[in-house]
Amino acid sequence: MSDDPTRPVTARPPVVRRAPRRAPRSFAAALGLTALGALLPGTAFLAAGRRRLGVLTLLAFLALVGGGVWLATGGRRTLVRSAVDTDRLLWIVGGVVLVSLLWAVVVISGYRMLVPPRSSRGHHVLGALVVLVLVVAVAAPAVFVSRLAFTQRELIAEVFEDDGRSATVEDTADPFGDKERVNVLLLGGDGGEGREGVRTDTVIVASTDTSTGDTVLFSLPRNLENLPFPRTARWPRSTPTGSGRAARARACSTRSIATGRPSTPTSSGRPTTRARTS
User: Fold this and answer.
1) Taking the model in full, what pTM does it have?
2) Beta carbons within 8 Å of 126's beta carbon, 6+ residues apart
3) Is the Cα torsion angle 76, 80, 86, 90 positive or negative in sign?
4) The pLDDT of residue 254
5) C-alpha span between 220 and 203 (Å, rounded)
């Protein structure tokens, strides 16, 4: 500093501290971040420094995940209604295709932002193969869902009404009234050509909650051979021992247990049941 007051004082230029330069990203790191961006869209953009684009992409992906979780939990009724509506199925296919295309664009764009500019030709070939595999992995579920939706749509169009809508009761009418639960008996017989009569080999009771649609199925098998009974049960003590597989099958048939007496063959060879009265 000078003692002469007439001499102008010159200010020192400010010292500018430069941020340390980041080491250039390796090709292996670019591939790893690209794969991570395919699993979690938006992360590749964040790693490349495109924060705004990365955040928007990540938020859109999280919104899709949240919508899927809602459909699997609280929105199951909406999902079922969409699965039986041909118009909604078309929208579902279009939405799935659009999401898969955008997802593929995100994967490709993320790789192009992350790959080192001076990569060799071999690295570019390897990177293209990795990106191709990731795009196929993204597109495969979309193709499966689209085929499933088209198959469902064709089934509804062929089985139900001409307009393709489900032939169910309209939402404005309640066929169950104030009933909280409805029980339906489903019977399946084995009658056919050359066979006399129909035997109910299948007996299923379907109990449905009218408010939620939750259904419980209770099936009664045709034969109950070797079924464990309590020692105080009357039916096992009243069953004749018999001999042979046919006798055991008649004794353990559902019809015999329901009436309390085993079936006995008649002169025509057809079993009859002697009902117990009390």
Assistant:
1) 0.54
2) 31
3) positive
4) 62
5) 5
